Amino acid sequence: MNTPVLFELSRPGRRGYRLPAWDVPKLDVQAVLPEALCADAPPALPELSEIDVTRHYQRLASKSFGVDLGFYPLGSCTMKYNPKVNEETARLSGFAEAHPLQDERTIQGSLKLMHMLITRLCSITGMTWGTLQSMAGAHGEFTGMKLFSAYFHSRGETGRRKLIVPSSSHGTNPASAHLSGFEVVEIPADRRGLVPLASLEPYLNDTLAGIMLTNPNTLGLFEEDILEIAKRIHQAGGLLYYDGANMNAVMGKSRPGDMGFDVIHLNLHKTFSTPHGGGGPGSGPVLVSSRLVPFLPVPDIVQDGETCRFSWDAPQSIGKVSGFYGNFGVLVRALTYILVMGSDGLTHASEMAVLNANYLMHHLKGLYDLPYDRVCKHEFVLSASSLKEDTGTTALDVAKGLIERGIHPPTVYFPLIVAEALMIEPTETETRETLDGFISAMKEIHDLSYGDPEKLKQAPMHTPVRRVDEVGAARNPKVCWNE
Amino acid sequence: MSEIREDLRYTENHEWVKIDGTSATVGITDYAQDTLGEIVYVELPEIDAALAQGDEAASIESVKAAAPVYAPIGGTVTGVNENLEDAPEQINSTPYESHIFTLKMDDPADADGLMDADTYAEFVQSSE
Question: What residues of chain A lie within 8 A of the CB of B61, using their CB?
Answer without folding.
Answer: 474
